Amino acid sequence: MNFKSRIIIGCLLGVCTLQVSAEKTYKYRINLRDKAETAYSVGSPQAYLSERALERRERQGLKVDETDLPVCRTYIDAIIGKGASVVTKSKWNNTVVVEVVDTTLIEQIARLPFVTKTKKVWTSPDSIPARNPERRKEVTNKFSKTDNYYGQAYRQIAVHRGDSLHAAGFKGEGMQIAVIDAGFYNADEMKFFKKMHLLGIRDFVNPQSDIYAENYHGMKVLSCLAANQPDVLVGTAPEASYWLLRSEDDDTEQPVEEDYWAAALEFADSVGVDVVNTSLGYYEFDDKTCNYRYRDLDGHYSLMSHSASMAADKGLVVVCSAGNSGRGTWKKLTPPGDAENVITVGAMDKNLVNADFSSVGNTADGRVKPDVMAVGVSSAVAGNDGTVSRANGTSFASPTFCGLVACFWQACPWLTAKEVIEAVRRSADRADAPDNIYGYGVSNIWKAYQTELKKRK
């Protein structure tokens, strides 16, 4: 979402009933010293990584290492023994998030010999808006056809020559894409997604929630990728397989959302996903003392950026939105857009002119960002009612390009994740002189494919 718009879902949908929290609770991130007491080993990764995930790594010559080992169960049990409940954990960061009512328990946990740091990352809100129980009635699925296969999405695909790649038979078949977002409102009722190969859904914010009743943002993002209604709206990877993962809690803006996101990314890795799209980002929080600074944009300071920077070493390509802060005082990228070895996408219009809201680079350590540009002005997306709508934001530039990355990798399966990222950059129109607004420019995904084919011969 990148510019936290503070969408109060219930009010937007005409449902203003509030659910009141009964008791104030708090969540803390606990950093752990090591994995010395793990019951797992790098020699037996089948216990915590799927066969597909291991095949993906083997194909790229990547080894399982200690960061892949699950968090030590004995440490978790000791934390639970102090009276805290575990919310989520991250093996890559070796952290556990716990929830407590009595904050003095955190002082006890901090004294455990394997704990190196504790940080409050969430305070329960006084109330949250109710979700719309009548949401399905909004969907009309009424639309008119065009004389173009892609419908109103044609231009946002053609600027990258994605239509040429599709015509060659590469529409994402066999590729797995995870969409990490805020919710997928009404996506289960829309004709646009009836042909979508859905692998599964997970909610890392509230496992009991209905992700199709949560925020609409992820649904619009998903439509840029997976919509498959010929002559009306077709996305950039209509034949790929999808995991829908919710990590954004739209009711508040707190650092714990980075922990949810990290858990979602690790889940995507563990099930064998190839490409991840995330149109979420954080630099400003309800607690202003948690806000990021320009010097923090080094690819690792943010928990989210640190996790994203590890993804390519696990064999995944992460595609993320640059952020929508170009008009404001921040202006810069939104983490994880500063991460290393990810494809950060800025927004432009259909005439290839950058959007003034699109966040700019470079990173604090001098790396070129954004990486590439894609259409994020008046993007063709699915509306809440199942019709074709329009939307602005790097949130939609990212998935549009992400789908093409998946199709390109399908066409060139011998490439590693890092080679895919480099090929995308090299195919862009400013590759010889990248800057902090356009990055490497507008990628020609057909050119990237042709180049890799020639190298292969």
TrEMBL record:
Any one GO BP annotation for this protein: proteolysis
Annotated coiled-coil segments of the chain: none
InterPro entries membership: Pept_S8_subtilisin_bacteroid-2, Peptidase_S8/S53_dom, Peptidase_S8/S53_dom_sf, Peptidase_S8_Asp-AS, Peptidase_S8_Ser-AS, Peptidase_S8_subtilisin-like, Peptidase_S8_subtilisin-rel
MF-aspect GO terms: serine-type endopeptidase activity
Residues of the active site: 181, 217, 395
CDD domains for this protein: Peptidases_S8_9
Family: Belongs to the peptidase S8 family.
Disulfide bond listed as a keyword: no
Entry protein name: Peptidase S8/S53 domain-containing protein
Keywords: Hydrolase, Protease, Serine protease
Pfam families documented for this protein: Peptidase_S8
Positions of the Peptidase S8/S53 domain: 172-441
